[in-house]
UniProtKB/TrEMBL annotation:
This is DM2 domain-containing protein. PROSITE patterns: SWIB_MDM2. Gene3D superfamilies: SWIB/MDM2 domain. It comes from the Eukaryota.
Length: 433
């Protein structure tokens, strides 16, 4: 009989702990757990020292990787805000059409062949057209293509000069176009004039390049070996020359000592590094414009195909930015979702380890000293009960006497557990455990 009562006491004690642990696991699954650190008991245990050290190394590596990914993401976002220069080919088309010319009126008779000043019919005239487009990148995927820029967005200033007899055509021989803010973008320009004489046309274009390009003064161009570049590119080329020639001062690294070629540029024996941009600005000149020549002869039919010129132009690499933006957005969404899922799984495993360690500590303490463990457990439960009831022990009682007089007191959820523990203690004492 006594032997049969021993398991009953143990069952009552373990069932209480198991129900408490199960409720913790359920609560943990309901809320998101973010703690991924191992319990201190496992970290300090010699049995798990090697595994704990490996896990800590993984956490340290993960923190370094997260920092690197964050830094790279910031660098990509910063790069998207700046200009990423690339060289593209701008193809410029020049063409013309004519109307009312004598060779077009051949075969007409009477009034149909005469010029009409009121309607403008049969009056000799011509139309000159300037078009342009940026050529597409060869073998580019369709999804990577971006809408091409309009021709007028690549030009800052354009002048068209018409070489005509000023006595016959005194006005409109110079046409100037200057891009203004909020001006609609155009694919081309059209110039209409009246006349039937051959005309030589000179087109002067100032391109709008990104970043802005400059022509170097011959004195600096001969040293650096470049004729045209951006301000940043020129400063970088000068700095590369200084490092190649070992012109940086050995003691004060802020000072550059000029050699025989740089002495006329610096106009001194030395110069500070922070003054290099100012020195470079003195030798930057506006770039040479694009000059095209075209001959328009209304006396003969115009060519079937337009004349074309290819010009290299520096532009912002919209294709690369589009790909970078797509990669950043897609990776941010996919990786964030996957990493969050993995973090939750790791946190749940850590919580399971924590619960397993608590069970292991509980059972080991009970196996080492059953009687002392039960006594400590009961004292702990009594203190918890006093805290819940907000009252201290009075005359050896665990609860207030006035509460024991109410029948509702014995219907509380913890009463059944307390009775099971007390009964387990009684049976254990009776059995002599």
């Amino acid at each position: 009989m006594q032997e049969a009562q021993k398991p009953a006491a143990k069952y009552a004690l373990f069932s209480s702990y198991a129900s408490h642990t199960l409720s913790q696991d359920l609560d943990a699954r309901k809320r998101k757990i973010t703690d991924r650190n191992l319990p201190n008991a496992l970290l300090q245990s010699p049995e798990f020292a090697e595994d704990s050290a490996m896990y800590r190394d993984l956490l340290q590596m993960e923190r370094k990787l997260d920092w690197t990914m964050t830094r790279k993401r910031v660098e990509v976002h910063d790069a998207l805000q700046r200009i990423i220069p690339t060289t593209r080919t701008l193809r410029i088309f020049l063409s013309h059409t004519v109307s009312g010319q004598p060779w077009q009126r051949e075969g007409l008779e009477g009034e149909a062949a005469k010029p009409n000043l009121e309607t403008g019919e049969n009056i000799p005239a011509w139309q000159f057209r300037i078009d342009g487009r940026v050529l597409e990148i060869p073998n580019q995927r369709a999804k990577d293509r971006v809408p091409p820029r309009k021709f007028s967005t690549l030009i800052k200033h354009m002048v068209v000069e018409l070489d005509r007899d000023t006595t016959l055509y005194p006005e409109g021989n110079i046409v100037e176009w200057l891009r203004a803010p909020n001006q609609p973008a155009l694919d081309g320009f059209t110039i209409r004039r009246k006349g039937d004489t051959p005309t030589k046309i000179r087109i002067v274009m100032h391109l709008d390049q990104q970043p802005e390009q400059y022509k170097l003064h011959p004195d600096l161009a001969n040293i650096l070996g470049i004729k045209e570049d951006s301000r940043t590119g020129v400063i970088q080329a000068l700095w590369n020359y200084i490092k190649t020639q070992n012109l940086q001062d050995k003691v004060d690294r802020r000072v550059v000592r000029a050699d025989a070629r740089l002495r006329p540029i610096f106009n001194a024996e030395t110069a500070y590094i922070q003054h290099l941009p100012e020195l470079v600005n003195r030798y930057l000149l506006p770039p040479d414009p694009i000059i095209l020549h075209y001959t328009l002869n209304p006396a003969v039919p115009p060519p079937e195909k337009p004349s074309a010129w290819d010009v290299e132009v520096k532009v912002d690499d919209a294709n690369l930015k589009s790909r970078m933006q797509h990669v950043v957005v897609s990776m941010a969404q996919d990786s964030a979702r996957d990493l969050t899922k993995l973090d939750e799984e790791i946190a749940l495993h850590i919580q399971s380890l924590n619960n397993a360690q608590m069970k292991r500590t509980f059972l080991r303490a009970f196996a080492d000293d059953p009687r002392g463990f039960i006594q400590t457990w009961l004292e702990s439960q009594s203190r918890d009960l006093e805290s819940v009831l907000a009252s201290g022990p009075s005359e050896g009682a665990m609860v207030r006497q006035e509460d024991l007089k109410r029948t509702e007191f014995f219907r509380l959820p913890w009463v059944e557990e307390a009775v099971a523990i007390q009964e387990g203690m009684r049976l254990a004492a009776k059995a002599g455990l």
